[in-house]
What we know:
The chain has helices at about 10-15, 40-50, 70-80, 95-100, 120-125, 140-150, 170-180, 225-235, 245-260, 270, and strands at about 1-5, 20-25, 35-40, 55-60, 85-90, 110, 130-135, 155-160, 165-170, 195, 205-210, 210-215, 235-240. It is of the alpha/beta class. It has 2 domains: about 1-160 and about 220-290, Aldolase class I (TIM Barrel); about 170-210, no CATH class. The chain has an 8-stranded parallel barrel, surrounded by 4 helices. A 4-stranded antiparallel beta sheet has the order 9-12-11-10, covered by helices on one side. A hairpin with a 2-residue loop joins strand 11 and strand 12 (about 210-215). The longest helix has 15 residues, at about 245-260.
Amino acid sequence: MQLYVMSDDSLLEELLDKEIDGIILGVAPFAHRVRGAFSPDVLAGLSARAKRAGKKVFFMMNAVMFEDDLPHLEERLDAVRSMLFDGIIFADLAVLNIARRLGLENYLIYHPETYTTHPGDVSFFAPADIHAVVLSRELTLDAIEAFAETSALPLAFVGHGYVNVFHSYRRLLKTFAEHTGDFDADCYEGVRLSLLERERETEYPFVQDAHGTHVYRTLPRASFNAFDRLGEVLDYFFIDTLFYERKRVLDIVDDYITLNKGETPDALHERYSDHDEGFLRLPTHERKGDAG
């Protein structure tokens, strides 16, 4: 199983020194919920540095596309063609259609976040000659293993990081600010904030940016306890680094590298008491109190 880490320009050099297989970089303006998204000129330099270090490079282009975006999207994909890279992570099928015209379909990695919930979903995309499919974030460990039994495509999974649970292209914070008149929402553009429900004590991280409003689960997911089983069935394990400070990203990466070598880091569970396993052992139709 190959380890890929979401990076930005400030993290890149330190990540390239580590025993990971590749990095993930956002392509502006068609990447959202990423650590950094870059113009073609910057992206070309970053990817070249990674390739010189012997790392693979996946570009993230996971935004939802609108009709007006299509000419610009084709320009971006055409610019990407001349770069050094190994995959393009996408969600909107407009990317697939344009990539086919440009001869890039073999690089595509389908990542719709919630839609790949049945092995038939993978079978549907196999004839499209895409490179791989990222499994849904809500899948249990048992379900992921069941996928692998019949999959005709390489499989990936976002095994660590904050999990997005709600996305709206509406700028909800701005709407609220205009309704109340209490603050200027533009001051918080791209800033991590928290939602607190009055009937609950848990806070939900959220961000408003050019792509709308994004709300995340309270606790980030960690897959340390399931890593051995995931390693038997996955081709790619993605580490999402959004919201983490630089030092913690490097510590997280080191711990997964250690696990990937078949060793267990010291005091692992104590260091990640602020994480949980997400849905890996909790089917989404069950409540926590119902789970065995």
